[in-house]
Write a structure and sequence with these properties.
The protein has helices at residues 13-23, 31-40, 91-105, 120-127, 172-182, 196-204, 253-267, 282-291, 307-312; strands at 3-7, 48-54, 57-66, 75-82, 110-116, 131-142, 159-163, 215-219, 222-231, 236-244, 272-278, 294-305. The chain is of the alpha+beta class. It has 2 domains: 3-137 and 298-312, Aminopeptidase; 140-297, Aminopeptidase (3-Layer(aba) Sandwich). Strand 2 (48-54) and strand 3 form a beta hairpin. 47% of the residues are buried.
């Protein structure tokens, strides 16, 4: 048996996407987005995908990088995944060792990882020094079989629903909306320092984000709430994030935007939708339950201090860290 860990190559994109879908089927992932992430990550993120090859076949991958869009310094993400059919050969350990040593060399002081609560993954995290912090619930909605609540016959005064694509000439108002709502999400590290340039390249231009399905609730001409949609072109979609500006909260605008986005996704041929929330985010969990979402998976956010990695030159770790959708 020959096991190696190496840097990602563009030709690995399909294999890496296959691994991610096999491990976390609630994530929308395409070969195009894998290749795009590798080629277009901000320089300050120091993003790199590592792949594990077993007898010449890609069986695992790890996204690694610094959390560059936060005011909290020294934070990083390491997220190895190994295809379930190829576990037990040391690929996860090899990926995580390489990921942790790389991040420690970049000056990271703490790693964040999201760990699927399936017994095996959480036990692996516990054994290797990861402290459990928060949990997220992932939900699934069968768009082909589950009826959605109807859209209102009449919108509130001053409110209109538009697609994100309508803002193509000037997407800055959507950046301002996303930045404000994201900064208030429950999390271990706030995403409170994303520049407009990084938002354009990492969100607006992301190949999996469907700007036509993404819905924006506009109040008297101002974008007030939105629900971003990622889609894989194979009938699956996910709520990338849903949020409302502080001044417009408590008016049901996020619920309205997300309901409209789901209706649009179903009309576009999507047959299943996924979403995820921190377990303390009771308002969004209630909205998703009202739409018919059913529990699908649970993940722990786990943390590890990297001081011991620097001192020993060795390290181990766990699963994928992602931005929690709503």
């Amino acid at each position: 048996m020959s096991l190696t860990v190496r840097a990602f190559r563009p030709s690995d994109a399909k294999a890496v996407a296959d691994v991610r879908r096999a491990v976390a089927s609630f994530l929308v992932c395409t070969p195009q987005s894998v290749a795009w992430e590798a080629a277009n990550a901000p320089a300050a993120q120091h993003f790199r995908i590592l792949v594990a090859e077993l007898n010449g076949r890609v069986v695992g991958a790890a996204k690694t990088g610094l959390i560059h869009d936060s005011t909290v310094p020294g934070q990083a993400v390491a997220n190895p995944m190994v295809h379930p059919a190829h576990r037990g050969h040391g690929a996860g350990r090899a990926l995580l060792t390489a990921a942790e040593e790389r991040l420690a060399a970049l000056g990271a002081t703490r790693i964040l990882a999201s760990v699927h609560e399936d017994g095996r993954s959480t036990a692996f995290a516990d054994r290797n020094g990861y402290r459990r912090s928060r949990t997220s619930r992932y939900l699934r909605l069968d768009l082909a079989q589950t009826p959605l609540p109807p859209l209102p016959d009449r919108l509130p005064p001053g409110v209109e629903l538009r697609s994100a694509a309508d803002f193509g000439a000037d997407p800055y108002p959507l950046y301002a909306l996303d930045a404000e709502s994201t900064s208030d999400e429950p999390c271990d590290v706030p995403g409170d320092a994303m520049s407009y340039e990084d938002w354009l390249s990492q969100t607006w231009e992301h190949p999996d984000i469907d700007l036509g399905l993404t819905t924006v609730a506009v109040v008297d001409g101002e974008p007030a709430a939105f629900s971003a949609v990622a889609a894989d072109g194979l009938g699956r979609c996910s709520s990338a994030t849903t949020g409302t500006k502080r001044a417009f909260r408590g008016r049901g605008l996020a619920k309205l935007a997300k309901l409209h986005a789901l209706h649009e996704a179903r009309a576009a041929g999507c047959t299943e939708a996924f979403t995820g929330n921190d377990t303390t985010n009771a308002p969004m969990l209630a909205i998703n339950s009202a739409f018919g979402y059913a529990p699908y998976a649970t993940e722990w956010r786990c943390l590890r201090d990297l001081s011991d990695v620097r001192s020993t030159g060795t390290g181990t770790g766990t699963a994928e860290g992602i931005r929690n959708p709503a």
